[in-house]
Amino acid sequence: MTDQRDPHAIATLLAADRRHAWHPYASALNPPPVYPVASAHGVRLRLGDGRELLDGMSSWWAAIHGYNHPVLNRAVSAQLGRMSHVMFGGLTNEPAVELCALLAAITPGELERVFLCDSGSVAVEVAIKMALQYWQAQGQAGRNRLLTLAGGYHGDTFMAMSVCDPVTGMHHLFRDVLPRQLFAPRPGCGFGKPARAADIAAFEALLTQHGDAIAAVILEPIVQGAGGMHFYSADYLRRVRALCDAHGVLLIADEIATGFGRTGKLFACEHAGIAPDILCLGKALTGGYLSLAATLTSERVAGIVCSGEAGALMHGPTFMGNPLACAVALASTRLLLSLPWQREIARLESALREGLAPAARLPGVREVRVLGAIGVIEMEQAVAMGPITERFLAEGVWVRPFGRLVYTMPPFIMRTDEVARLTHGMIAALEKYLSQPSGEEAQ
After folding, report:
1. Among the options 199, 283, 289, 407, which is catalytic?
2. Catalytic residue among 254, 277, 289, 407, which?
3. In total, how many domains does the chain have?
4. In this predicted model, what pLDDT tens digit does every residue of 328-347 receive, in sequence order?
5. Is 153 assigned a catalytic role?
6. Which of residues 310, 338, 366 is at a domain's end?
7. How confident is the prediction for the chain on average, in pLDDT?
């Protein structure tokens, strides 16, 4: 758009979008409405028609420092002057090496080996390949199944889909062609509470029954994200770690959504004081600037993987170790670590608790819950995306609900008064949505 407020330019853009762009989880036959963003700065998105929105989503939880941050802008500009990309096969580059060293230093346990890749889904694929090759190298190729938790979400590629919830997840259409994995019941013990004996017993029973076939346990520690924004007990996570050790099974922690401070700890595993054997990172890694993810493991696991027939981990993305993405990831991570981020997350948590509390009194609300910089209003029934989005825009906020969940993960830099405006807008929009005729709700 040459003129972001020119209605003709906006109409032309939207027509081209409708004709050619295929948006995530959207029909190409009858595309839902989309809203052109002309610019973004701080915690605000400016639409093409001039409307300004408070961003409650951090662009799917990635833009933790907000938009157009001067530190990250400088990092990108400086790296562009040197090189934007060089292959990682047979070559290396300073930003990638420094990023690997930094991630190894700040993650839990002794995760010394870092495999850089393109996206969160690919990080999960790489983690599963590590686990499978780990057992193949030891002559136990029959250990090729994953044990995971019901209600989880790990990505949209095929092995990642196989460990997403098979009933309530988004990938049931592929059930007949996906590997059959094992699913323990979703933990019923909430965050801050002890593990329930029944939950642990069910998990242990699966380990005992299928232990010879299980390569690894994979889970989202503490917070199950896109599978339901479910917060569960750190005690449960501790006991899962102990059971994995007792049964000789690897533990993969998918911290793509929870890493880099979102839950109040730098990594959610730290709530339980445990470390995984393999760790997946993504989303906030670059502060939302570029796509980059990482899969980390210990020197022991890496050594066993590489002692097998292939002599290497059999994966190699074209853009692996991209210097531009690694440079901004370094800048984003160093920026986070330089700030009093724990205090800021505690401030956001308090503001979200206060701001979202009135939602509990609305009809049709099942529960309101907050952990760190995550605020969730869980409804009894799924909301209709089109009508409720229009309500949010009318209140000047950008929130993207799914299913029964109306939630926010704001940028860490959002001020307390801005959080109050965001939560007020969410509740006001929800009230208006709930009072509208049932016919409109069904659109």
Report:
1. 283
2. 254
3. 2
4. 999 999 999 999 999 999 99
5. yes
6. 338
7. 96
